[in-house]
Design brief:
mainly alpha; 10 helices; elongated
């Protein structure tokens, strides 16, 4: 038996996938000419989208994210949205074309989730209400490192080492690194405020405004 005969079949047959895309594109072009709604994709094409997204999500750079199912959903959704842009005259490799679409959908989901984690991180880091801090710590953390309050130290001073350990733990819990925090921290110029206000004031309001603006643009 030759190597070609014993070679395991790929989970998506690129030739059959291409044929199916060509047939669907013919229907799409006919609908465009007649100003009719775009025809839905066939079951086989949809199944290919699902298989590509699921297999890509098991790669080492994606598999450990807790929102992997959301990544898969985003990837499939993006394939459905942009399938009509596939041009059989320019490419005979729909597998590669849609893998790339799904790949970038995964990256966008990771970026979005990291931004949400950054907001949670800032909420915890800047919270002054001891009840809120206690609730969050009890639900998210098993260690006592974060159970300090401003009343635990004399003259409102804090131990730098413990503070750094607490901050590092927050970053680790929310899967954030220094680059993530720098990237999501708003760079807008602000009016000068007193040192006391500057210490307690958070950039969270501007972050939430950016989130609302992004949501509005996505709904348009």
């Amino acid at each position: 038996m030759s190597k070609k005969e014993i070679k395991k079949e790929h989970y998506v047959n690129n030739k059959e996938f291409f044929v199916a895309m060509v047939e669907w594109k013919v229907l799409v072009n006919q609908a465009n000419q007649q100003d009719d709604p775009r025809p839905p994709i066939g079951e086989y094409i949809g199944d290919c989208f699902v298989k590509i997204a699921e297999h890509l999500s098991y790669r080492p750079n994606f598999v450990n994210y807790p929102f992997r199912e959301e990544m898969i959903g985003d990837g499939i959704e993006n394939c459905l949205m942009y399938a009509h842009n596939f041009n059989p005259e320019k490419s005979k490799n729909p597998f590669s074309y849609f893998t790339q679409i799904i790949y970038y959908a995964f990256l966008r989901r990771i970026e979005k989730e990291k931004k949400q984690n950054y907001i949670k991180y800032k909420l915890l880091e800047n919270a002054d209400d001891n009840q809120i801090r206690s609730f969050c710590k009890e639900n998210y953390f098993e260690t006592s490192k974060l159970k300090k309050s401003k009343d635990n130290t004399e003259d409102n001073t804090e131990d730098d080492t413990e503070e750094k350990e607490a901050t590092d733990q927050l970053k680790e819990h929310f899967r954030l690194n220094e680059h993530d925090i720098e990237k999501f921290t708003p760079k807008r110029k602000r009016r000068k405020v007193s040192k006391k206000k500057a210490k307690s004031k958070t950039n969270l309001d501007s972050i939430l405004q950016d989130e609302q603006s992004e949501d509005m643009s996505n709904k348009r």
